Amino acid sequence: MKHATGQLVITNGNLIDGNGGPSLRDATVIIGDGRIQFVGPAAAAPAVSPTTNRIDAKGGTIMPGLVEAHYHATYFNVEKLEDLDIKYPVEYVSILAAVNAKLALECGYTAARSGGCLFNIDVWLKLAIENDLIPGPRLAASGREICSAGGLMDWNPEYRKIGMEGLVFTINGIEDARRAVRALVKDGVEWVKTYPTGDAAWPDTNDHHTLCMNFDEMNAVVQTAHNHKLKVTGHCRATEGIKNALRAGYDSIEHGTFIDDEGLELLLKRDVPCVPALYFEKASIDRGPEFGMSQAVIDGHKETLEGGAASALKILRAGGRIGLGGDYGFAWNPHGDYAREISFFVRHVGFTPLEAIRCATKSGAEILGRGHEFGTLEAGKLADILVVDGDVLEDISILEDRRRFLAVMQGGVIKAGQLSQSQTTN
Ligand SMILES: [Zn+2]
Question: Structural domain boundaries of the chain?
Fold first, then answer.
């Protein structure tokens, strides 16, 4: 991805650096050749040439670009889970993924860690973004997801004989687990997404207290993935599934819904980040009836929302790391709504705005393995920056409205927002 050349100065903003500390009034940020050169009070800023380009933040907020830590570029706002795999061919899903990536960037998300995708689209989407062919977040790619036969993602009845070509490797045992990871290694993914447990969406046979992979299979995934320097994450709701994942050596935990004290201890021991992805639950409860969800499914989502919120707060208060990402890509939880996750954590989970922003920036960048490059506003880092019209600490929901962005910047280049030339209006 090309960086800006020359200097750019952002002035007159309330600075949130992403480290979680208090904000700084009347701050200045100086960018040189796409990297941050200075961050601090205007009074202490070094002099720049009077002809240097300037952005006046007009008393609004200067903060790091947001990081979606559980992103599904290829989930195309489906109305039914089954549609994910069979509704469209790979050609069309690839185009939809490119559209979703552009939208994410316009929504202020300058980076995203994939939580699984159809076929191997993420890897190529990432390349197209890195080569500036299409706009989008800096991506950490994952490919097809892994679930054991009969588990949450193996939903096509045998009599249909349609298998699961695009979304999931259905495995039986450790040989299959290794085979699936080895295929992903060749495809070039960075994260392997697995399904250790079920979900409220599938109450009959794979609910949120059901295990969908056994420990041996999970362990085989991790051993094979780590051997080839890939990371592993998994959809973990049930208490035992969370602990199996942590004992097997998972590098992050998705959801972590019903973590117990023993699980928390395992998580903290290796400082494994957790991405609760709660807004999917909230949207399912609020809008599920519109999409024909049964009462059993909605009741399950209520239980996982409550459990997930309590676990997220417990992890944060115990000193653990939380990434924010809301599993967007369903009709009731569509792309574009990403920052609702942040507001939800402030209004309903009990995070302070500064804590939620740290999770949505610094922790997200760390989950991508790129915390040294971006995620906070510090000298030397890439200028992945949001300039926002308004005080987001006063009203966190400003981040949900992309019309409020003056600038969404990657490497000092303004890619979206009011000051960008290419901003679309729909
Ligand atoms: Zn997901």
Answer: 7-65+376-416, 66-367
CB atoms within 10 A of CB 170: 18
Residue 322, Cβ density class (10 Å: 0-12 exposed, 13-18 middle, ≥19 buried): buried
H-type helices in 7-63, by residue range? none
CA of 265 to the centre of ligand 1 (A): 24
Q: Considering Cα of 248, then 251, then 254, then 260, what sign does the dihedral take? A: positive
pTM score above 0.85? yes
CA gap 129, 135 in Å, rounded:
6
Rounded average pLDDT over 376-393: 98
Reported confidence tier of residue 422, pLDDT bands at 50, 70, 90: low
Query: Measured between alpha carbons, how far is 223 from 248 in angstroms, rounded to an integer?
Result: 8
Distance 187 CA to ligand 1 centre (A): 20
Contact yes or no for 306/275 (Cβ under 8 A): no
Residue type, 64: P
- For residue 227, report the distance from its CA to the centre of ligand 1, in Å: 25
Summarize pLDDT for 40-96 with one digit per residue, the tens. 999 999 999 999 999 999 999 999 999 999 999 999 999 988 899 889 999 999 999
209 C-alpha vs ligand 1 centroid, how far in Å?
17
Ligand 1 centroid to 353 CA: how many Å? 24
Question: What is the distance, to the nearest Å, from the Cα of residue 169 to the centroid of all Cα atoms in its chain?
Answer: 22
pLDDT, tens digit, for every residue of 247-305? 999 999 999 999 999 999 999 999 999 999 999 999 999 999 999 999 999 999 999 99
d(Cα 377, Cα 36) in Å, to the nearest integer? 7
Spacing, Cα 312 to ligand 1 middle (Å): 16
193, β-bridge pairs: 233
Q: What is the pLDDT of residue 163?
A: 78
Are the C-beta atoms of 301 and 200 separated by less than 8 Å? Answer: yes
The CATH class for the domain spanning 7-65+376-416 reads: mainly beta
State both tokens at 150.
């009969």
pLDDT at 293: 95
Q: Given a cut of 50, is residue 381 above it in pLDDT?
A: yes
Query: What is 66-367's CATH number, 1.10.10.10, 3.40.50.1000, 3.20.20.140, 3.40.30.10?
Result: 3.20.20.140
Measure 72 CA to ligand 1 centroid, in angstroms.
Answer: 7
Give the pLDDT confidence score for residue 162 in this predicted structure. Answer: 81
Q: What is the CA radius of gyration of the chain?
A: 21
